[in-house]
């Protein structure tokens, strides 16, 4: 913590660091960026992943929460938290920053950002983009269900903003007021962000014009309520390598505009807001989550703020902190159940709700057969005939067909092709998470 406190004090007093003139997209913008430059710095002892395409091999471990990284370069490589990696498997985001040393293979904690994509064992992955800053608090906290919920909320927000219309659905035992559009839109965060950029001209403009100046090492992002986020590296070369992705990460905050010119930046007020944010960071509790040779990463949690920072050889090389917004949990409403509503649908939705609320519920035969199908798919894809043979004696062919349809409908199972062209059924990240949650509950 001493390394962090020293850095925060240097920032607050602008010793070796300087906050430059604030930048905003237009005179109606409610968000602004304050570039941070460093006046004194030496040689870097590391490189950033963005600088060495292919230099670090990233593979899927087949576990939702774990990726495998192996370095093939002669310097330590910093991989920042919130970076999304994609490939022929479910995309993941790195939960917090890590350092991979030359020749080292490390397990890296990750979170899934597309719940209905199946996992491919040892599939190669590559950097895509950063998680939007409004999701970073959930990523830092490491709650997979909360991350998926936040992605669905973004899809719902996009539906309203882009004027999409969800499919109509019949009444069910539980009507989630936040969920009706989820099945009408992708839950792939990468696609959601691409559509957001194409739908909102001002976001594209922020990305193109995001400030990058000489000796810049970071940025403070402010909105009408004060400091929203701060990201900082120890060297201009590191910031330069990550700046384009940083522009995308912060674009949504910087693109917000008022109808009239009601907000004029005041340099002293801006610095007061930044210093207050730095003070809250200094008061945070910290927890070590990564250790490798001379590298350490710590998570920060404090009053209205979440963050993480990475230390290499005793010096902070990266800091990311964000305001922690109060989250609105989904509300539920009981409605009449039609007689023809499949029992497994009723039970599944009840189970998901009760599991999130910490309420135990005894599972009936219908739900047990669904879990048996999911468990059969856990080790890899199966054809219909392979599933039929494996589950013979446990359920009838008709029951197997119904459970696969239930799984497909609700994103627990996906239908794909083997290399020989045969149709197979595979477990998605959402299906795998449901199994893991059931086991934790002592199913």
Cα-to-Cα separation, first versus last residue: 41 Å
- Over the alpha carbons, how many angstroms does the gyration radius reach? 24 Å
Strand percentage lies at: 25-35%
Total count of domains: 2
> Could you describe the largest sheet, including whether it forms a barrel?
8 strands, antiparallel
| Average residue pLDDT | 85
- The helix/strand class is alpha+beta
State the low-pLDDT regions, or none: 159-184, 330-341, 357-363
Helical residues, percent: 25-40%
Shape category:
globular
- In order across it, which strands form the biggest sheet? 1-2-13-14-18-17-16-15
Number of strands: 21
Task: Figure out the total of helices.
Answer: 12
Key traits:
alpha+beta; 8-stranded antiparallel β-sheet; 34% helix; globular
Overview of the molecule:
The protein has 443 residues and is α+β, with helices and mostly antiparallel strands. It has two domains: 2-45 and 134-323, no CATH class; 342-440, Orthogonal Bundle (Arc Repressor Mutant, subunit A). The protein has twelve helices and 21 strands. It has helices spanning 2-13, 136-141, 144-162, 189-199, 201-209, 236-254, 267-282, 343-357, 365-377, 384-390, 397-409, 429-440, and strands at 17-19, 32-38, 47-48, 56-60, 66-71, 77-79, 83-87, 89-94, 98-100, 105-112, 124-130, 174-176, 216-223, 226-233, 285-292, 295-302, 305-312, 315-323, 332-334, 413-417, 423-427. Strands 1-2-13-14-18-17-16-15 form an eight-stranded antiparallel beta sheet, sandwiched between helices. A six-stranded antiparallel beta barrel has the order 4-5-10-8-7-11. Strand 16 (295-302) and strand 17 form a beta hairpin. Helix 4 crosses helix 5 (201-209) and helix 5 (201-209) packs antiparallel against helix 6 (236-254). It is globular. The chain starts with a helix and ends with a helix. Residues 159-184, 330-341 and 357-363 have low confidence and may be disordered.
């Amino acid at each position: 913590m001493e390394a962090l406190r020293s850095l925060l004090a240097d920032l607050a007093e602008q010793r070796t660091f300087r906050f430059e003139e604030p930048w905003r997209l237009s005179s109606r913008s409610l968000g602004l960026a304050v570039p941070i430059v460093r006046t004194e710095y030496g040689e870097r002892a590391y490189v950033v992943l963005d600088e060495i395409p292919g230099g670090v091999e990233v593979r899927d471990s087949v576990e939702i929460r774990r990726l495998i990284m192996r370095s093939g370069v002669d310097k330590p490589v910093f991989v920042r938290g919130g970076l999304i990696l994609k490939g022929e498997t479910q995309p993941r985001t790195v939960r917090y920053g890590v350092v991979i040393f030359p020749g080292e293979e490390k397990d890296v904690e990750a979170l899934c950002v597309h719940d209905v994509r199946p996992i491919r064992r040892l599939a190669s992955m590559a950097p895509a983009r950063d998680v939007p800053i409004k999701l970073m608090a959930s990523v830092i906290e490491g709650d997979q269900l909360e991350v998926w919920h936040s992605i669905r909320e973004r899809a719902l927000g996009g539906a309203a903003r882009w004027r999409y219309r969800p499919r109509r659905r019949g009444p069910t035992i539980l009507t989630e007021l936040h969920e009706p559009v989820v099945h009408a839109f992708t839950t792939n965060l990468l696609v959601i962000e691409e559509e957001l950029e194409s739908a909102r001209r001002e976001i594209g403009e922020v990305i193109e014009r995001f400030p990058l100046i000489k000796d810049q090492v970071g940025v403070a992002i402010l909105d009408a309520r004060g400091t929203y986020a701060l990201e900082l590296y120890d060297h201009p070369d590191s910031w330069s390598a990550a700046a384009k992705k940083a522009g995308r990460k912060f674009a949504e905050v910087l693109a917000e505009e008022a109808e009239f010119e009601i907000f004029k930046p005041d340099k002293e007020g801006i610095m007061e807001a930044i210093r207050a944010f730095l003070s809250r960071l200094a008061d945070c509790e910290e927890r070590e989550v990564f250790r490798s040779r001379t590298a350490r990463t710590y998570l920060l949690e404090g009053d209205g703020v979440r963050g993480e920072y990475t230390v290499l050889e005793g010096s902070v090389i990266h800091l990311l902190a964000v305001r922690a917004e109060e989250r609105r949990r989904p509300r539920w409403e009981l409605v009449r159940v039609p007689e023809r509503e499949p029992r497994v649908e009723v039970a599944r939705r009840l189970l998901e709700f009760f599991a999130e609320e910490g309420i135990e519920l005894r599972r009936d035969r219908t739900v047990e057969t669904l879990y048996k199908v999911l468990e059969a798919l856990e080790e890899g894809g199966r054809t219909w005939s392979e599933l039929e043979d494996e589950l013979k004696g446990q359920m009838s062919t008709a029951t197997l067909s119904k459970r696969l349809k239930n799984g497909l409908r609700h994103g627990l199972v996906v239908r794909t092709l083997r290399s020989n062209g045969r149709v197979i059924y595979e477990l998605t990240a959402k299906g795998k998470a449901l199994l893991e949650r059931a086991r934790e509950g002592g199913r």
